[in-house]
Amino acid sequence: MPRFYCPSPLAPGLALSLPPGAARHVQVLRLQPGDAITLFNGEGGEFDATVTRMGRSDVEVDVGAHHAVEREAHRAVHLLAGITANERMDWLVEKATELGVASITPLAAERSVLKLKGERAEKKLAHWQGVAVAAAEQCGRNRVPLIHPAVTLTEWLKKAAPGERWVLSLSEGTQPVSRQLSQGPVTVLSGPEGGLSPSEESTALAAGFAPVSLGPRVLRAETAPLALLALSA
Q1: What global pTM score does this model have?
Q2: What is the average pLDDT value for the chain, to the nearest integer?
């Protein structure tokens, strides 16, 4: 059954117009009045719904029963991920959402190829949030991970709350991530193409990030955090 993200209050018996993004999706799928769909608003669970009217640019639905279904990962993993080039970052956001990431903060690392400022940064943020919404609709999640504005590591550390922190590292002396697995929330720092700079890694270690390894092979920037998420799902 088609699933749509509807970031507005939902309740059984409510009649409403879908937001523009969901309405366009319904029209692309050529759904008709009487067709059943599923709605979720990110606040927990999902709702049955029925299409009641198809306009030229709007879609109306009746909301049905609520189902307290959650498909979240066992552990909340927050990615602080080095910004990779163009479609690789899209792919990371999409697959991380499918694997249950709690949030993603794009890291403007020293070695990031893609540099974002001003209006371009705002457009990219909106684009990545849209990628996360589409992935949540597809994979069955009822909560959409928040994509935070891009920051440098220094900026992130100034605002970050205390908590468990890991940094994916190729340095000697790292512990296999399998030895670090537990149930509490964790922030995972990963670098862009070329990895974190020595100064960034030193800063992370001084800030309490525990260095962890995913094994003897060198993984691509967009693969490494996904491998960790798969272990934590």
Answers
A1: 0.92
A2: 93
Closest CA to 190 of 214, 224, 215: 224
Cα-Cα end-to-end distance for the chain? 24
Q: Read off φ and ψ for residue 128, nearest 5 degrees.
A: -65, -35
Q: Write the pLDDT tens digit of every residue in 219-230.
A: 999 999 999 999
For tokens 């909340």, name the residue: 76
- CA–CA gap between residue 43 and residue 9 (Å, rounded): 9
Return the DSSP state at 81. E
**And the tokens for 183?**
């149930």
Strand order across the 36-40 sheet = 3-5, 36-40, 46-54, 59-67, 15-17
Taking CA atoms, 201 is separated from 119, 127, 210, in Å, by: 29, 29, 10
Q: Decide if 62 contacts 52 (C-beta within 8 A).
A: yes
Tens digits of residue pLDDT in 83-93: 998 789 999 99
pLDDT in tens, 66-83: 999 999 998 899 999 999
Annotate 166-188 with DSSP letters as a single string: EEE--STTPEEGGGT--SS-EEE
Query: Residue 132: enclosing H or E segment and its boundaries?
Result: helix 118-139
Q: For residue 54, what are the β-bridge partners?
A: 59
